[in-house]
Amino acid sequence: MGGAEDNLAKLKEAFETLNRSTEKLTGAYESLQKDTAGLRRKLEESGEFLRDIIDGLSSAVVVTDMEGQVILHNAESARRGFDDGSQIAGWLASAGDGVHAGKRGVGEWKGAGDEVFEVSMTRFYPGGGGPGGRIFVADDVTELARLKKQATRTEKLRALGEMAAGLAHEIRNPLGGMELFASILRRELEGDDEKLRLLNHISYGIQSVNNVIGNVLLFTKEIKPARKEFDLKRLVEDILEFTGAVFEKSHVTVKAILPDKPLPITADEGLIRQLMLNLVRNAVQAMPDGGEFGVKLASAGNAGNRKGGVEIVVSDTGPGVPAKVRDRIFDPFFTTKDGGAGLGLAIASQIAQAHGGYIDLLDSSESGARFMISLPIG
User: Fold this and answer.
1) Are 370 and 321 within 8 A, CB to CB?
2) What is the pLDDT of residue 307?
3) In a designed cystine with 262, which of 210, 231, 272, 330 is the match (CB 3.0 to 4.6 A)?
4) CATH class of 145-220
5) Global pTM?
6) Read out DSSP for 243-306?
7) What φ, ψ does residue 65 adopt, rounded to 5°?
């Protein structure tokens, strides 16, 4: 009996030890579950925090696998229409494909319409293994690209303007003498109709050269707008009425999209009128066999990084602007037409700049040319 009791006591002790160990393991497991739940909650909170940060970015962020399938994107990318991954091939071509983790490719990529994006790309390597995918970041640099073009154009204009001003004055001096002698000769030839007819041709040529010089001098001098408030909508309506006979003679129809209410702007009304007339003249010359002239006027919430502005889009259905000369059309003395001094667009650009705005040639999938003038309201 003694041996059996001893064995029973040992068994009881072992069972109690097992119970205590089980209780400890249960407690440890419960503690581990709590820690795991806490870590999972913190991870989820961190993920939500990270997503809030990414969604708050003004840049479009798109994460893809190595096959180009989108696995993550932020709100800005969805707003831009980048969330379906259709532009990934274009981005890879623009940004280049980095070889190592952290290596970034940067390049400009033209989006739909006239938008320009600067795209950077980074590969990521999960767990230290092979590449898991790519992270693309796209920033809208449309306005910056336009400002760069504007700065380059301004520098060209400054250098050419100095040269043109000197040449204009050198030409105008003998031209004044020619006009004087022509007027004297006119008195001497009074009654001789045939010789007066020839003299009229000479006088007309002198006047034509003088007009070109006047445009050159206007181009070379600093434009200082005399600002006052006026209704831009009314000005556009006046210009269309004033040029109605020209449109009719050229078999050009007009399509105007104007706001219902007045659109007040503080600017130099005379200079804005000249800018618009230059564009009308260009459009009509581009459509010698007739066509359609379009003008669209609208307020813009943000024009040229300024709060509050207006945008005027002028279009024609002519042959358009060849790609090889797109960067030169605002250069002074450059023209694709027979005759003319090539100053119309250069002067229009100067007027827009003098008001703190710009003029740009828009991309168009259709035939013809589209120009946008962006001006601040005040």
Assistant:
1) no
2) 53
3) 231
4) mainly alpha
5) 0.52
6) THHHHHHTTEEEEEE--SS--EEEE-HHHHHHHHHHHHHHHHHH-TT-EEEEEEEEEEEEETTE
7) -80, 180
